[in-house]
Amino acid sequence: MPKKGVLELTEMKRAGQKITWLTAYDYPTASFEQAAGVDMILVGDSLGMCVYGYPGTVPVTMDQCIVHSEAVRRAAPDCFVVGDMPFMSYQASDEEAVHNAGRFLKEAAVDAIKLEGGVRVVSRVRAILDAGIVVCGHIGLTPQSSGQLGGHKAQGRTLESARLVVEDARALAEAGVQLLLLEAVPPEVAAFITEELPIPVLGIGAGEAVDGQLLIVSDVLGTFQAFTPKFVKKYADLAGVATSALTEYVNDVRAGRFPEEQHCYRMLEGEHDRFLEFTKQTV
Ligand code: KIV
Predict the structure, then answer these.
(1) 160 C-alpha vs ligand 1 centroid, how far in Å?
(2) Of 81, 93, 166, 252, which is most buried, counting CB atoms within 10 Å of its CB?
(3) How far is 122 from 41, CA to CA, in rounded Å?
(4) pLDDT tens-digit readout, 209-253
(5) What DSSP assignment string belongs to 180-215?
(6) What is the DSSP letter of 119?
(7) Can you tell me the distance from the alpha carbon of 231 to that of 283, in angstroms, rounded to the nearest whole number?
(8) What does the alpha-carbon distance between residue 118 and residue 23 come to, in Å, rounded to a whole number?
């Protein structure tokens, strides 16, 4: 499938074709996603929990994000890859935000960056856009500031909260973001924003009316087991498959069932006799 850019993704919105988006953090997973025909890949800072075992996304560094983005880019040259700006890579100043967004493009050749926040990150968004970088906004539940939100809670469930989400969406669209992600927002609010904005609006836990869906691949494949958000649909239990395969290996080794003849490199014809001679001489 030819690689899509922002224009093609926007055309998909106009044509009513749903955009498919998954996270990936490594080469094999990204290659499976490209083979499955996924349109977009997010190298999310969720790698903190899904790959490194941190309790959240806050400890994730720019260097970690770059290394994982490079691997994903190599595996999926035909997918639209989005690099996720980790905590404190853009919060301090416009200059730092532009520098770190630029690293994603220069070092990992991603197609766009994503950063969390609405009205309060408009200046950062403008600065990154001015550097010629495609920006995806991320509002609703924003995990990097979940402390301020009172935890990992859905946003926009009251009129007051929904108004804030709509204001954030409008501020980002006005600033010029080319893509917008809504996380854990009621379908009613997501439908309104999707209808109002001309840019592709994607959702994770935002119902079916958005222009496309994002899920975390570790939830989809069942490799992340700490918790499962309500919006997840699990398509496989790779943790179960992997654990039972590894248990079988452990049992085979302990019982002498592995390795078998087919797993051995025997000596070449006649070499064993020569080797026996050699062992006698050395004794
Ligand atoms: O890091 C990530 O995977 C994300 C999603 C939770 C939206 O930002």
Answers:
(1) 25
(2) 81
(3) 24
(4) 999 999 999 999 999 999 889 999 999 999 999 999 999 999 999
(5) EEEES--HHHHHHHHHH-SS-EEEESS-SSSSEEEE
(6) G
(7) 69
(8) 22
Distances from the Cα of 278 to the Cα of 154, 261, 265, 267, 270, angstroms: 74, 24, 19, 14, 13
Say how far apart CA 144 and CA 97 lie, in whole Å. Answer: 15
List C-alpha distances in Å: 262 to 6, 50, 252, 269.
51, 36, 15, 17
Ligand 1: lining residues by beta carbon, under 6 Å: 23, 42, 44-46, 84, 181, 183, 204, 214, 216
Ligand 1: centre distance to CA 136 (Å): 12
- pTM over 0.70? The answer is yes
CA of 1 to the centre of ligand 1 (A): 25
Q: Which two tokens stand for residue 110?
A: 């991603």
- List the residue whose alpha carbon is closest to atom 4 of ligand 1: 44
Instruction: Give every CB contact of residue 133 below 8 A, 6+ residues apart in sequence.
Output: 101, 102, 104, 105, 112, 113
Using most ligand atoms within 8 A of CB, pick from 25, 216, 232 the residue to mutate for ligand 1: 216
Please list the active-site residues: 183
Per-residue pLDDT, 150: 82
Tell me what pLDDT residue 283 has: 61
| Structure-token pair, residue 228 | 């499962």
Residue nearest to atom 2 of ligand 1 (CA): 44
Q: What is the DSSP letter of 18?
A: P
Angle between helices 122-130 and 159-175 (to 10 degrees): 20
